[in-house]
Design goal:
alpha/beta, 13 strands, binds nicotinamide-adenine-dinucleotide, seven-stranded parallel beta sheet, 17% strand, 11 helices, globular, Rossmann fold
């Protein structure tokens, strides 16, 4: 049996495909390559198997999904495919609801019809509001402050309600801030356009691709005034997904779905992250302080005790390792891999 991995050519999905392979499971990727290069598939085939199955297409395309689910023996679905920029979602909220919510409805319906037993949904710490007490637990209030955050919370609701009314079960994973790359340096975070999140932007400065970093707001109520986030290694996240396939929900809850925070459990300020990156890369990271970004919150870090107790999962890598692995990937990327058009590879 295989796992259908939507967005499997993207940052977190690609690392999860490797973790699934290492756990002895097969993946079938569906990706439209709107934010990933075909080059990732070449790398994934080196890291997993040459006949890794990849279908190019939109996860909102019902016929395509039904075809994939009929052709392959799929017992589980991991749904990574989505748009993920808070700032872009403020400009194009309808596009975000279409990509992130409408496609999730289509996928859930097709998965249930195909008898899929477990859906794993990629959610985010952005579903929590800025008023939550820290650390944030799964029971903290959910008050998304951007259209992106609302699409993630609504997606959670879609898969939870769909599971409640069917034979499938759903695990919802709320990631904190993924950083790092596979130790091979072959896959990592390589979005098209300018990255929205901090570490890729810091490392662009370290690599000389950007003159300096913009620190968005230094007037937050935190130790040094910059925003605090909980960074978690992407390979740790990937292992959280493998654990999510195996957890027996019936032993834990009367519900057919369960939410888990995946983070390191520790908070790091932007200025601390800059200092750590300067040390790891051996480069100066010049920065300029700018206005806060709309939709950003002051501080967020996770209580991960539920994932520890029920999934047997705990983040293993510290910030230094995350930055070192991310930097290794940046140095290993040939040319401006982040902005070039895809190079071709065979898909099936
Ligand atoms: N990276 C983060 O900081 C972060 C944090 C919390 C939650 N998440 C969630 O995790 C998931 C994966 O994030 P990521 O960082 O790997 O993003 P990513 O952009 O690197 O990966 C998403 C992949 O999905 C593909 N895709 C997008 N829309 C598609 C569509 N309609 N049909 C088919 N493929 C499509 C893209 O080409 C890309 O390969 C997303 O759902 C995101 O909301 C990400």
């Amino acid at each position: 049996m295989a796992t259908l991995v939507t967005g499997g050519a993207g940052y977190i999905g690609s690392h999860t495909v490797v973790a699934l392979h290492e756990a002895g499971r097969e993946s079938v990727i569906v990706d439209d390559f709107s934010n990933a290069s075909y080059r990732v598939i070449d790398s994934l085939r080196r890291l997993t198997r040459q006949d890794l199955k990849v279908v190019e297409g939109d996860v909102g395309d019902e016929d395509l999904l039904v075809g994939v689910l009929n052709r392959h023996e799929v017992d589980s679905v991991m749904h990574f495919a989505a748009r993920k920029s808070v700032s872009e979602s403020l400009v194009d909220p309808i596009g975000y609801y279409r990509s992130n919510v409408a496609a999730t409805i289509t996928l859930a319906q097709a998965a249930i019809a195909a008898g899929v037993q477990r859906m794993v949904f990629s959610s985010s710490a952005v579903v929590y509001g800025s008023t939550s007490e820290l650390p944030v637990t799964e029971d903290s209030p959910t008050v998304p402050e951007s259209p992106y955050g609302m699409t993630k919370l609504t997606g959670e609701r879609v898969v939870a309600d769909a599971a409640a009314a069917s034979a499938t079960t759903a695990v919802i994973l709320r990631y904190f801030n993924p950083v790092g790359a596979h130790r091979s340096g072959l896959i990592g975070e390589a979005p098209y356009g300018q990255p929205d999140n901090l570490v890729p932007r810091i490392l662009q400065v370290a690599a000389g691709e950007r003159a300096r970093l913009e620190v968005n707001g230094i007037d937050y109520d935190t130790v040094d005034g910059s925003a605090v986030r909980d960074y978690v290694h992407v390979m740790d996240l990937a292992l959280g997904h493998v654990a999510a396939l195996d957890v027996d929900l019936a032993q834990l809850t009367a519900q057919r779905s369960r939410v888990y925070n995946l983070g390191s459990g520790a908070g790091t300020t932007v200025l601390q992250a800059i200092a750590a990156a300067a040390e790891v890369t051996g480069s100066e990271i010049p920065y300029a302080i700018t206005e806060r970004r709309s939709g950003d919150i002051a501080a967020s870090w996770a209580d991960c005790s539920r994932a520890r107790n029920e999934l047997g999962w705990q983040a293993q890598h510290d910030l230094r390792q995350m930055l070192a692995d991310h930097w290794h990937f940046v140095l290993n990327s040939v040319g401006p891999a982040h902005s070039t058009a895809p190079v071709s590879c065979s898909l099936m």
